[in-house]
Amino acid sequence: MSQNAQQHSQDRKRGSGVRLVYDVLRDEIISLSLPPGSPVDENQLAERFQMSRTPIREALVRLAGDGLVTTLPNRSTVVSNIDFLSLPAFFDAITLMYRVTTRGAARHRSDQDLERIREHQAAFAEAVKSQDAMAMIATNRDFHAAIAEAGRNPYYATLFSRLLDEGRRLLRLYYSSYADQLPQEFVTEHEQMIDAIARRDLDAADRIAAIHADQIVRQIQTLISEDRRDQIGL
Amino acid sequence: MSQNAQQHSQDRKRGSGVRLVYDVLRDEIISLSLPPGSPVDENQLAERFQMSRTPIREALVRLAGDGLVTTLPNRSTVVSNIDFLSLPAFFDAITLMYRVTTRGAARHRSDQDLERIREHQAAFAEAVKSQDAMAMIATNRDFHAAIAEAGRNPYYATLFSRLLDEGRRLLRLYYSSYADQLPQEFVTEHEQMIDAIARRDLDAADRIAAIHADQIVRQIQTLISEDRRDQIGL
DNA sequence: CCTATCCAATGTGTCGACAAAAAGGATGCG
DNA sequence: CGCATCCTTTTTGTCGACACATTGGATAGG
Fold first, then answer.
1. Higher pLDDT, A80 or B129
2. Measured CA to C1', what is the nucleotide nearest B14?
3. 3-state DSSP percent of chain B in helix, strand and coil, to 5
4. What phi and psi, each to the nearest 5 degrees, are found at residue B114?
5. How far is CA A162 from CA A93, A104, B95, B204, in A?
6. pLDDT given for residue A2 in this prediction
7. In Å, how far is A93's CA from the nearest CA of chain B?
8. Least confident among A6-10, A71-75, A161-165
9. Would you tell me how many other CB atoms lie within 10 Å of the CB of residue B41?
10. What are the pLDDT digits (tens) for A17-38?
11. Do B63 and B25 meet the contact criterion of CB atoms below 8 Å apart?
12. Cα angle for residues A229, A232, A233 (degrees, 5° grid)
């Protein structure tokens, strides 16, 4: 699906091909436009993007490094599955990253960081206001990624981004139908977070981040168990 | 340096080339056999490993994903530098990972995990006994990686491995000269760690891991500041 | 003598093609 | 009629070659 055409032929710059393919595929995977398990065919992509298989392969190698696709040797590459067995590990890790990045932001933020964070929060509030679930998920991710940036710890920021992306896949899996979730509560929690970061109050930032993480984890768990019940009911 | 010859020509299996190059280069980078900043030439590697540039490039892309090499567009690829400015972030992250992986191991370990951990600890003790600094560093890494495995959280295990590898590079930078460091203290701390994990005592595991991390961080800091003094003295 | 421009040389990014490996279907046997 | 085997087809892994970008040196100008 989504056989969006690329620019016609040979007008792209020298190193841009890989980046383009990587970005597009990454987005399609995260947005579930490419559902987990779908095969990723190199020839098909080569034709779609009007380029040789070489840059395609490089993009796939990088996506595999991010864990977004899984390469079966001598066999096809597929979009990585969402592993429900390791959900507890996921919840554990993302909760910890919420905490340390927010705490780090409270400690290391510059004024410019704060401004950027506020911009993302505005975008998030806007998405909530207009009931756009997909936009909520995306802007929420950007908001927390900006906080992680302000925390000045690339190790945390990298892991957190990865976790947030996986969370995006998870949420999309459930939010596509009933799009009025993600309560106003999240907006106010975000505001409290910003306050704590602005005041450089490490403990408050940590505390509200933990609460926020719990909130999100519980929501995902609720969605999943509800879904399970439905499936059993069939 | 180290122009180790590979097996002659075309007797390697189909998907093994990339893995081989990746593993060899990774080891040479971590062991500082390839010092930070050294250029990584694709043609040169292609000749050295007796294969085309394609699998070489794929290995380099993966190494770049691990942060071990840095690719300058249209220019050479170089072994990533050790960034001393982000050392505080490194210390922060590795301390946290020491704690959560050890705590996780105390919670989720199987008996088999415990056995594996003890084996690695034996190897570490052996290295300490024989005053082999390089072996200490390597076996210490394996010991903690095994604990991380037992913690059953792939996110933590991945980040921790990466941090331990960077730590290996850091330590090698200083240990090459005076090789009698890494006191017996570390061995006993490891033993305490194993005890806590065996008893499934989460808090004790956390506590001893934090102490252990502090120990290591302080040691690295000492080495660096000593080294700085020497350099200024020249 | 110093500086700016041009040119050659080196090395990366991309391409099309070939070969090995696996998947799926056809065929023969029990 | 079911099952194993062979073959065909599809797709990946690897190769050698070419085109562009950058670098460093040579040359001309100030």
1. A80
2. D13
3. 70, 5, 25
4. -60, -40
5. 11, 18, 21, 30
6. 36
7. 7
8. A6-10
9. 13
10. 899 999 999 999 999 999 999 9
11. yes
12. 85
Give the closest nucleotide to A14 (alpha carbon vs C1').
C13
- pLDDT confidence tier of residue B192, bands split at 50, 70 and 90: very high
How far is residue A45's CA from residue A163's CA, in Å, rounded to a whole number? 27
> Distance from B77 to chain A by nearest Cα, in Å?
14
- Confidence (pLDDT) at B185: 82
* Domains of chain B, earliest start first: 16-79 (1.10.10.10), 84-233 (1.20.120.530)
Supply B48's token pair: 């050295």
Per-residue pLDDT reduced to its tens digit, B1-16: 333 333 334 557 787 8
Are the C-beta atoms of residues A130 and A220 closer than 8 Å to each other?
no
B93 touches A at CB < 8 Å: yes
Strand positions, DSSP E, B7-49 = 39-40
Q: Which nucleotides of D are covered by protein (CB under 7 A)?
A: 11-17, 20-23
Are B42 and B2 in contact by the 8 Å Cβ rule? The answer is no
Q: Check CB contact of A98 with chain B, cutoff 8 Å.
A: no
Could you read off the pLDDT of B126-179 as tens digits, one per residue? 988 888 888 888 999 999 999 999 999 999 999 999 999 999 998 888 765 555
Residue B176 has a pLDDT of 59
Cβ-Cβ pairs closer than 8 A, A with B, add up to 56
> How big is the CA angle at A199 (ends A194 and A201), to the nearest 5 degrees?
95
DSSP count for chain B of H helices, then E strands: 9, 3
Q: Where are the alpha helices (DSSP H) in chain A?
A: 16-30, 42-48, 53-65, 87-108, 111-129, 133-150, 154-175, 184-198, 202-233
Q: A202 touching B, CB under 8 A? A: no
Residue of B nearest to A92 (CA): B153
Two tokens at A52? 């040789």
Distance from CA(A75) to C1'(C25), angstroms, rounded: 19
User: What does strand C contact on the protein, if contact means CB under 7 A?
Assistant: A 10, 14-18, 51-55, 58, 73-75; B 13-14, 40-43, 53-54, 57, 71, 73-77
| Confidence category of residue A222, pLDDT binned at 50, 70, 90 | confident
Say if the Cβ atoms of A154 and B92 lie within 8 Å.
no
Question: Phi and psi of B70, rounded to 5°?
Answer: -120, 130
CA distance B45 to B66: 19
